[in-house]
Design brief:
Blueprint: H1 3-18, H2 22-25, E1 33-34, E2 39-41, H3 48-53, E3 57-62, E4 67-68, E5 75-77, H4 83-86, E6 105-111, E7 114-117, H5 125-129, E8 131-135, E9 144-145, E10 149-162, E11 167-175, E12 198-203, E13 211-220, H6 229-235, E14 239-242, E15 254-257, E16 263-269, E17 274-277, E18 282-285, E19 287-288, E20 297-301
Length: about 300
């Protein structure tokens, strides 16, 4: 079986299992590991500041995967499917394959009742209506507290544009009620993040329990190495590239400046992250060295998102 055929098969399985836009969770066309794998469980992270910020990050879960607990109305249950059951083609050495996988995109609070995510995660009102946003899905979670589950009331602003002249990929949604006990994240409102600035992302790779991923840096304010210079002049207005260890499901995650603690952008796109191991007949994470030449993750600049206060 060719790599292309196996890649297509894996994508189809994931697409069918999650019932979402393939771009959000297609493990054959997302991101990858640069150098060391810098994903950490939230509660194990060394910096309390970012553990607190993680409280304001949510995961998108299709409504049809959630159901009421018959014995406790305060609880919402979900199918307890582990990643290695959902995607049996992954190599057994892959990290986190024994963890539960539930969602397919990430998002974060910018106001008590407003959440920002990638535009391809919420394309229209149907997406708004057919998904929920869940906070506090961390390792060890086997059910959700009802008060941590929110509906999308309406789309305030949405763009999903990838052309030779523009990249815009974001959505601002209004939740069905204010989110209590969580602080909206501070974000850059002007200027550019400096090149080489240290980056950190918080989200739900492959629908897994939330991970804090550090070790990234701003590589460029556009894809000037990969794209035509004139074309990149237009593109650089809206995004920068970085070497973040992210996967499908991280779409919509907040990308922080690790020094300032403010959100610099939204994780929107990346390169292929899995490669087929023909000896073991399974998929394994692709590893690249930490280099500005190997920085394929696109981050939508938060101050280019229209509709934020």
């Amino acid at each position: 079986m060719s790599l292309a055929t196996v890649s297509l098969l894996l994508s189809t399985i994931v697409f069918a299992s999650f019932n979402v836009e393939a771009k959000s969770i297609d493990v054959s066309k997302n991101d990858l590991i640069y150098g060391a794998d810098n994903r950490h469980e939230v509660d194990d992270y060394f910096d309390r500041e970012f553990i607190d910020k993680a409280k304001s990050v949510a995961m998108r879960v299709p409504t049809n995967r959630l159901y009421n607990d018959p014995e406790d109305q305060r609880i919402i249950n979900f199918p307890r499917v582990r990643l290695n059951q959902l995607i049996p083609q992954l190599c057994k050495e892959e990290r986190f394959i024994d963890q539960l996988s539930v969602g397919n995109c990430s998002g974060f609070l910018v106001a008590p009742n407003k959440l920002v995510t990638a535009g391809h995660c919420i394309m229209n009102q149907s997406d708004c209506d057919s998904n929920r946003w869940v906070f506090d899905f961390k390792e060890g979670t086997t059910s959700f507290k009802r008060n941590n589950v929110y509906s999308c009331k309406r789309i305030i602003k949405q763009k999903y544009i990838y052309t030779n002249r523009e990249v815009s990929d974001y959505a601002i949604i209004e939740l069905d009620r204010n989110v209590e006990g969580r602080t909206p994240l501070a974000y850059r409102k002007g200027g550019m993040v400096p090149k080489e600035a240290p980056l950190l992302v918080i989200g739900h790779p492959l629908g897994l329990p939330m991970k804090i991923t550090d070790g990234g840096k701003v590589a460029s304010m556009n894809d000037v190495e990969q794209e035509h210079k004139i074309r990149s002049w237009f593109l650089r207005r809206n995004y920068f590239t970085a070497n973040l260890d992210t996967y499908g499901g991280n779409s919509g995650s907040p990308v922080f400046n690790q020094k300032s603690g403010q959100v610099e952008g939204i994780l929107i796109q990346g390169a292929d992250d899995f490669t087929y191991n023909s000896d073991n007949e399974c998929f394994e994470s692709k590893h690249f060295s930490d280099s500005h030449l190997n920085s394929y993750e696109k981050v939508m600049r938060i101050n280019k998102v229209e509709g934020l206060d």
